[in-house]
């Protein structure tokens, strides 16, 4: 009779956890096999034709949104093994996108989110406006970029996340156009004469419209260098003239200047009744409220 002691080893209990599965993003796997310290071989099968060995906590990127069977075979130092299989759902990503209006220096940039998702729902937004200081978590934010005298571009990034934890990002180049500079000159004129307005506005592109208001509640014009005749007046008048110019970038600027209308002098004189051969005396009694009579 032969008696021998045989050691019967306890099998390991294979197990693992995994993070949310998102299409095209790394999914993390964590080996939680018991007892973990004696496992010497790990064989992972990710269910999509890919496998990896001897990595305790691997990551894997799926290229198809689907349900996959993941298998882990854990082998300990004496050759005992256990196998576990779990299902993982790989979710499609949201699609990040946004629209932006033409932006003029000194005005708010209006960002319109146009992201979408076919499953789940978008739960958060993170905007980076690209100037090093502007951020937002709103769906459709506005942002005032610093004023500029030259055309500037910024890389604006939008990251959207859904309620499953999947996310997507997009970067678009946003251009900030400087405003045109509205300016004009006009002449001081006499009542009844034409006022001449000279546009001196400038822009990095072409100015394409002029909006004049001559300040008397009546006169307007859309020509570049208009003329205008104010109503006759017996007193000195001041009118606040406004010019708005728009350029090809959709940017505009406004300027106001006063123009002055002087009343005409009123000619008059007195004279004495003289006898033949004597000198007649004429005395000028003309008057003016617009300025000194000079001749």
Task: Give an overview in words.
With 295 residues, this protein is an all-beta fold. 0% of the residues lie in helices and 48% in strands. The protein is built from no helices and 26 strands. The chain has strands at residues 16-18, 21-22, 26-31, 39-45, 51-53, 59-61, 67-76, 81-91, 98-100, 103-104, 108-113, 122-128, 135-136, 142-144, 152-162, 167-177, 184-186, 189-190, 194-199, 207-213, 220-221, 227-229, 237-247, 252-262, 269-271, 282-284. Strands 2-8-7-4-5 form a 5-stranded mixed β-sheet, with no helix packed on it. Strand 7 and strand 8 (81-91) form a beta hairpin. The model has no long low-confidence stretch (mean pLDDT 90).
For this entry, give a set of tags.
single chain, mainly beta, 295 residues, five-stranded mixed beta sheet
Tell me the number of helical segments per DSSP (H or I, 4 or more residues long): 0
Q: Please trace the helix and strand order, writing H or E for each element.
A: EEEEEEEEEEEEEEEEEEEEEEEEEE
- Total strands: 26
Strand content range: over 45%
Side by side, the strands of the main sheet go 2-8-7-4-5
The helix content is under 10%
State the distance separating the first and last CA atoms: 153 Å
The pLDDT mean sits at 90
User: Structural class given helices, strands, pairing?
Assistant: mainly beta
Largest sheet: 5 strands, mixed
Radius of gyration: 42 Å
Brief sketch in words of this structure:
This protein is mostly beta strands and 295 residues long. 0% of the residues lie in helices and 48% in strands.
């Amino acid at each position: 009779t032969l008696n021998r002691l045989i050691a019967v080893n306890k099998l390991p209990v294979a197990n693992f956890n995994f993070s949310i599965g998102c299409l095209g993003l790394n999914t993390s796997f964590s080996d939680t096999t018991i007892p973990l310290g004696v496992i010497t071989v790990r064989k992972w099968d990710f269910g999509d034709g890919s496998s990896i060995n001897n990595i305790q906590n691997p990551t894997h990127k799926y290229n198809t949104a689907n349900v996959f069977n993941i298998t882990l075979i854990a082998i300990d130092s004496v050759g005992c093994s256990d196998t576990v299989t779990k299902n993982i759902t790989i979710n499609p990503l949201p699609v990040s996108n946004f629209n932006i209006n033409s932006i003029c220096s000194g005005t708010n940039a209006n960002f319109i989110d146009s992201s979408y998702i076919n499953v789940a729902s978008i739960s958060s937004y993170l905007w980076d406006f690209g100037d090093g200081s502007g951020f937002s978590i709103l769906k459709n934010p506005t942002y005032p970029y610093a004023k500029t005298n030259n055309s500037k571009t910024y890389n604006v990034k939008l990251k959207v996340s859904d309620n499953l934890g999947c996310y997507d990002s997009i970067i678009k180049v946003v251009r900030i156009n400087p405003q045109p500079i509205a300016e004009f000159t006009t002449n001081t004129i006499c009542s009844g004469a034409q006022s001449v307005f000279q546009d001196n506005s400038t822009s990095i592109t072409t100015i394409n419209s002029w909006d004049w208001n001559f300040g008397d509640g009546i006169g307007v014009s859309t020509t570049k260098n208009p003329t205008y005749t104010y109503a006759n007046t017996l007193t000195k008048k001041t009118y606040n003239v406004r010019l708005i110019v728009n350029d090809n970038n959709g940017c505009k600027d406004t300027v106001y200047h006063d123009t002055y209308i002087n009343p005409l002098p009123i000619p008059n004189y007195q004279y004495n009744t003289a006898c033949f051969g004597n000198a007649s005396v004429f005395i000028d009694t003309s008057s003016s409220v617009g300025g000194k009579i000079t001749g």
